[in-house]
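Consider the following assembly input.
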Amino acid sequence: MTVMESAPVKARKHCAGSVGHPRPTGQDRYSISEVVAHTGLTAHTLRWYERIGLMPHVDRTHTGQRRFTNRDLDWLDLVGKLRLTGMPVADMVRYAELVRQGEQTFAEREELLTTHRENVRERIAELQSTLEVLDFKINVYADARRASERFDPV
Amino acid sequence: MTVMESAPVKARKHCAGSVGHPRPTGQDRYSISEVVAHTGLTAHTLRWYERIGLMPHVDRTHTGQRRFTNRDLDWLDLVGKLRLTGMPVADMVRYAELVRQGEQTFAEREELLTTHRENVRERIAELQSTLEVLDFKINVYADARRASERFDPV
DNA sequence: TATTTGCTTGGAGTGCACTCCAAGCAAGCG
DNA sequence: CGCTTGCTTGGAGTGCACTCCAAGCAAATA
């Protein structure tokens, strides 16, 4: 087996645009509320993600409190992206399982992602075609408004 | 026994692809099953739309069966578009109310649509940024696959 | 005439993705 | 020590958008 960085891959700081603070540097153990601040998810949702198997095993303190790592945060960033594109939670859980199973699932992971990418592309096309309808109707209303303003100025 | 309530059996004569098939020319009174065939919605959903006020008043036969007009079909096309873009049903109902109230709501309708158009644009941008992440990860997996194929050809 | 088909209704049920609750434990602070 | 804050749990509840059900009626077909 070739030694390759396998598991939850590194999702580098790509956007971080949506919600959340930048990650404090040099830290690698985050409480649940820190993760809430970073991701914009609720603590409920984070615990729920763990329960349904959407999170890799999360570390705990000696008193049982969760301590998330940077790797966990990377994973949540990816999950957030997939969620934004409307991937069903069940599919994300499936992906998480594949990641847990290690390198021999690379092909299946690639396929899952490729299929999803196609869905996203279709979705974008759909939205763009709706945009045209929206533009058309907005113009109709705007024209009507301008016409009425011309004839009946307030 | 009602057979065709959920699966538009007759429905996919032609492309059930994006939205229905071409409207028969010269007709202006469609039964619910014809509308099912055209729109891809279920009869349940059509009745539900009417109940919640998402449809303008639908005409009836003397025995109480619905007869949809071309105008209704146009409306459903628009609703379908808005639905595709994720506009909440409540907002579409609001829009329907404005339409019922007549011309004096033009400005408000324009605003509603403009706001929504902005949402759609943001959504597209979001999806496009996710596409980049997807591309990146798919490439990681594809590279790994190509590498393993080179060293360990089957 | 008898059966089948297509439609009607109000209300109940489903699936998804959270979202919240109640009870309880541990640590920090005055 | 008592109080507050932050976290824990399993299970129940919420909101959305359908989705289905059961009973029944009218028209068409056998």
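The CA atoms of residues 28 and 70 of chain B lie 5 Å apart. Ask yourself how this observation constrains the way the partners meet.
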